[in-house]
Amino acid sequence: ARKDLTGLRKYLEPWLPTDLAPILVELPVEDLASIFRCAGRSLGAATFGYLPLVSQKKLLRLLSQEQAAALLNELPSDDRTAFIDSLPLDVAMQMLSLLSPEERKVAQALLAYPESSVGRMMTLDFIAVRPEWSVAEALDYIRENGYDRETLNVIYVIDEQGRLIDDVRVRRFLLAAPDRKVSDLMDGNVPHLAATDDRAHALDLFRKYDRIALPVADDGGKLIGIVTVDDILDVADAEATEDIQKLGGSEALDEPYITIALGRMVKKRASWLIVLFLGEMLTATAMTFFQGEIEKAVVLALFVPLVISSGGNAGSQAATLVIRAMALGEFTLGQWWRVMRRELAVGLALGLILGAVGFLRIAAWSMFSDVYGPHWLLVAETVGVSLVGIVLWGSLTGSMLPLILKRLGFDPATSSAPFVATLVDVTGLVIYFGVAYAFLSGVLL
Amino acid sequence: ARKDLTGLRKYLEPWLPTDLAPILVELPVEDLASIFRCAGRSLGAATFGYLPLVSQKKLLRLLSQEQAAALLNELPSDDRTAFIDSLPLDVAMQMLSLLSPEERKVAQALLAYPESSVGRMMTLDFIAVRPEWSVAEALDYIRENGYDRETLNVIYVIDEQGRLIDDVRVRRFLLAAPDRKVSDLMDGNVPHLAATDDRAHALDLFRKYDRIALPVADDGGKLIGIVTVDDILDVADAEATEDIQKLGGSEALDEPYITIALGRMVKKRASWLIVLFLGEMLTATAMTFFQGEIEKAVVLALFVPLVISSGGNAGSQAATLVIRAMALGEFTLGQWWRVMRRELAVGLALGLILGAVGFLRIAAWSMFSDVYGPHWLLVAETVGVSLVGIVLWGSLTGSMLPLILKRLGFDPATSSAPFVATLVDVTGLVIYFGVAYAFLSGVLL
To answer: Which is nearest to B193 in space by CA: B120, B128, B127, B125?
Structure first.
């Protein structure tokens, strides 16, 4: 095997670590461990971040402590933060103890930032130059110091105190005459993040500015790290996943569905199901309240699921559309009346459509059978009219609830499809029996 | 105003168009038109792509035909494709007629690719060098030809027929000795797209390789364009939006919620609401079937919404989690049994939890009142047991339906929360009255 490894090392040599990494991750972890042992450290370090968490853990167990330490010290700081963050506290401490004093300080500083903050995902591997240098000097500096930096697509300009002055895309250095000053390339426009910013804010800035990387500055304006767009694609995926899972009526899993422990999955799903169940119990209470009406006209009970679920469906639609539009920054809270106006119009239209369908369905059935009794026309009117009200009400509730939650400082995605449906179910019953009373009082009731 | 414009032009000069664009888009369209008239064409071209569609259209109307033509000719090819694509056919044709013959050929070729294909989002502004050149020659070539290229972060290597050989990040050129050959920088690893690939496939490749740009090659291997990561972030957002909107039980809007015409929004939402309504009508049919039971024991009707909505909620959860996991590529169709095993376990656990809560709720109320009659214990048992069955059934349906839809070639996200809820409502009624019959037959029924 020794000979094989030498051959392998020779074979791997001309490849750039970041190009090799996506191919290597498809090998079994055991083979990876062999490759990591024989190949250069930088290959292992670049590959590690691409591996799923399970493989990362397994791989570290397969390496000797010395090899593991070498690997951890070599990892890009953002990948290392993400990895250590996902470990139980005791294992995380062991990992930290493997780091060199300097790297440990870096790792601890990054881990000290709040979860899902920019600090947790930033990397310290950037290149910064000074405004008074010439382009040729800057290029020499990049050539000497750039090899192990995560991105060289953007070069940062700092003053003597390390404060961020500007970011200049490397293309400008390439295109500029070598004797021009770095300050000639600057445009004075440098959107930047704070390490304590939420990652969702970083996502918004990337969406807005179409950048490849954004710098992170501390309170004093000092450049302390950068966030790169490949991590932002992960953030966009993670934020969408969180929203989607909440919209589906469960807590965000924070782990892949296919590998999360069953106990944790039950916990994340049960909590909302129980809340919804307790809410839905109000339907039983409401139904009890109308028990007398049901006894007199059982025909009313037949349409209860149909009528109230239509309100729930309309509400789910509205809530989902509004939540996604908010996540993408399509409108601000101040424009709530605009959303409400839209839902008033759309909800009314949808209600009239469903009401008509419902009325025609009951009328059609009653032409050929007497399943809905002699007063079928009144029943059909009751169902039709209450559908208009319930669908309109569902659309309004579904669209306004996310705005209200946001206003109160909660995550709008909490108003999930099932949550809105439950809320509308209860009020829908009241609307339905109210309309029934108006139409059928004196006849059936 | 003339004087102002000269001042403005002077003020804008040192700024790079792509840095200025995100700031300019916040100005009123009228001011933008003035700036576009006086500033260089490249500024207008870079800014245009950042504008929302409404402003783009308004802006073109404010410019003279000559100015509009200049702007359109100058636009990056991907931005232009996206803009023309969103216009009604007749306006699109007018726009095409404003282009120079060369640019028109480009635009028509890009527009000929299917919607949501890679061809529609690719740009032709890339830099390609030859493997036998030296690094110094390549850098000179980049300096001469690079200014108006969309990205210089990756340099492509092609042979004399224009076939793609490799992609090399520009950092390697920066870090290499000037007398080395371009071929020394190549690693032979060049993941690439076809112009007819779906944009979701491009998204997967970007997720996997963490690249800043990916090349697009035709059937003969010729390099025809590139796709950049900033457009991919838009694709990730758009794909997530589509999934979320479908999950919420409407068609994908394909336009921002806040600006889509109300008529189109009603159409997109009504279609699914009607389908769901027709499906939910089966509950009325099922209820009619059990009308006799309800007449004998009205108490059963009280819990109908509670019991069936719990199944719907569990189903929404399962469907949402499974659909998102599939979108992120967490598992393949072949692993359906693994998903099913998980949902069997989780669904049973959730069912037992809700069943217990439901049983206790009815028992507790009955301690202090006789609202549920003398046979409250049997009623509580009926509700508890049917909840176990319905929640389990909901979880299984919700998780398997997306897989079945995918297997049949449909979009899994079609099995929205409301869709699954409706499906489970009907079967839930059958389970509920079946259990009721087993427990209450001879007593209440």
So the answer is: B120
